[in-house]
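Run log // design_07
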């Protein structure tokens, strides 16, 4: 390999400033948010779609592996190298400089380019009284639009399902190793790759060039699917063959330049109902009743167990305060600062590489209790907490239902004020980070951290986990939260010191297999999980030479999918 010649060729495309070769600078891109890391020849940060195309041409010429990366916010290591056992050099292409978004069809659809984010999209759509597929959650951490599509992620919002489209523009390497540009976005942009990509980025197309083919730009069947509460399969999961199409679910096996997506009208009225009970079966009955009998589906239904409530209150307090006081737009900056502090600390032997966690946790102790009194009262009374948000006519349906339901069932509810609504939803959101903070603060005495997101069948009654003693005794901490309407649960564990994490995880996964569950539900396989045959075959079809993000789903890293 002529390393110098390769790097010189890349510099001619992106410039010296945007070709990162220093090891310490590469780490922000080559290490996953929570999982996985590996070496890369360099990180290229193109400033245009045409530059991405030219970089891909160089990589094909020199037989270089490409890992496409946007915000690098994934939790299973799917947008970074994993280990150093690839059979070819690895180049990371980070697309975050290319953040253009084009609004089409009076705001009913958008075209999001490779580095555009959900947060930017939310702001762009606001004047149209519309919003993107995902609002709180992924948007807060600066997640990209394209990344969500490539991983079929999201789905917390009950009416919208996982991120999905059948319209996109992407580059593909065919069986003969030839780079091809596929324009499947429904817009006439020209005939040559560079012309197409230039016109797309600059928005140089008129309404007359936009067609509306019989192709989906969202999962428009999802509402019907989630209402089927008697089905013995999950409502949504990453490897669902129904929702693997082109860019959707490709997990980096295509180089995606842009996607076309539906948007959604903003409701006129919103109301959050806070439900508490000590019986998981009570929540199961509410779920079944609402999904099968309400005329209007809820916006969301976020579950939180008491132990997770407590962990979030203590270990995610700083994140809560940051979002509450400075807004979601501050979070990407905070997380980037956190990465840099920890990277700096890792170079000093006597300083913890979790320095940022230590500092932020200490500062959080100085702030008074941030949670509303009624939520705290419910914490003391009830083990299970469910934050259900409804809109417009669904609000009156819920009022009548809950008033009658709790006359004869254990538990209670209250209607949140606007302030309580904001804090309840935010508390549930920041709960996702509490296990990582707990582990960082207790790493000397604790074993490994383990996070699993599971999609249980729609007819599952025993959705709340009851572990046998031989497994439960191996765990130091269990934190449960999730999206209860679709039966997607996030189950986070810290295991006891000395316990074999791999063996324990296999036991847990086996138990989920026996219950007909699918996993991962929404974080995709990354390098953490094995891709099942439906998914791995999809990858092989998209990338026959195995040159784009090889090894994903624990598949082969070698060219042409060779084993060994």
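design_07 sequence
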């Amino acid at each position: 390999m002529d390393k110098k010649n390769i790097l010189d060729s890349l510099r001619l495309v992106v410039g010296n400033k945007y070709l990162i070769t220093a090891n310490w600078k590469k780490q922000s891109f080559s290490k996953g948010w929570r999982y996985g890391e590996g070496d890369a020849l360099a990180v290229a940060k193109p400033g245009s779609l045409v530059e991405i195309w030219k970089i891909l041409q160089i990589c094909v010429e020199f037989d270089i592996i490409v890992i496409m990366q946007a915000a690098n916010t994934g939790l299973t290591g799917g947008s970074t190298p994993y280990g150093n056992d690839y059979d070819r050099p690895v180049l990371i292409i980070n697309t975050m400089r290319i953040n253009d978004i084009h609004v089409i069809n009076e705001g009913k659809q958008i075209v999001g380019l490779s580095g555009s984010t959900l947060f930017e999209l939310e702001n762009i759509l606001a004047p149209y009284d519309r919003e993107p597929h995902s609002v709180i959650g992924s948007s807060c951490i600066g997640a990209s639009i394209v990344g969500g599509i490539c991983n079929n992620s999201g789905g917390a919002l009950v009416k919208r399902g996982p991120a999905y489209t059948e319209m996109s523009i992407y580059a593909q390497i065919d069986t003969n190793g030839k780079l091809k540009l596929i324009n499947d976005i429904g817009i006439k942009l020209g005939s040559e790759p560079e012309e197409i990509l230039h016109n797309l980025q600059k928005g140089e197309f008129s309404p007359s060039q936009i067609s509306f083919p019989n192709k989906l730009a969202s999962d428009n069947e999802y509402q019907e699917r989630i209402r089927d509460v008697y089905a013995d399969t999950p409502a949504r999961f990453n490897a669902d063959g129904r929702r693997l199409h082109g860019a959707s679910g490709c997990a980096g096996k295509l180089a995606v330049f842009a996607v076309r997506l539906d948007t959604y009208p903003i409701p006129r009225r919103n109301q959050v109902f806070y439900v508490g009970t000590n019986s998981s079966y009570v929540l199961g009955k509410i779920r079944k009743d609402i999904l099968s009998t309400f005329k209007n589906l809820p916006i969301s239904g976020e579950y939180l167990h008491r132990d997770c409530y407590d962990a979030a209150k203590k270990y995610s307090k700083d994140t809560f305060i940051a979002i509450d006081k400075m807004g979601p737009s501050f979070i990407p900056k905070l997380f980037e600062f956190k990465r840099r502090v920890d990277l700096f600390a890792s170079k000093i032997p006597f300083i913890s590489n979790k320095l940022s966690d230590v500092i932020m946790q200490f500062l959080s102790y100085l702030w008074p209790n941030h949670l509303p009194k009624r939520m705290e009262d419910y914490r003391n009374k009830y083990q299970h907490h469910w934050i259900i948000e409804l809109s417009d006519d669904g609000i009156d349906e819920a009022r009548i239902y809950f008033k009658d339901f709790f006359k004869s069932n254990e538990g209670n509810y209250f209607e949140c004020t606007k302030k309580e609504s904001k804090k309840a939803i935010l508390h549930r959101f920041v709960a996702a980070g509490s296990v990582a903070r707990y582990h960082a603060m207790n790493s000397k005495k604790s074993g490994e951290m383990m996070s699993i997101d599971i999609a249980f069948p729609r007819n599952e009654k025993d959705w709340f986990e009851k572990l046998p003693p031989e497994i439960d005794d191996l765990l130091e901490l269990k934190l449960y939260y999730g999206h209860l309407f679709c039966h997607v649960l996030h189950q986070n564990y810290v295991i006891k010191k000395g316990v074999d994490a791999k063996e324990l995880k296999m036991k847990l996964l086996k138990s989920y297999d026996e219950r007909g569950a699918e996993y991962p539900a929404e974080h995709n396989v990354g390098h953490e999980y094995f891709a099942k045959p439906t998914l791995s075959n999809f990858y092989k079809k998209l990338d026959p030479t195995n040159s784009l993000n090889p090894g994903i789903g624990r598949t082969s890293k070698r060219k042409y999918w060779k084993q060994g």
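The chain has 19 helices and 18 strands.
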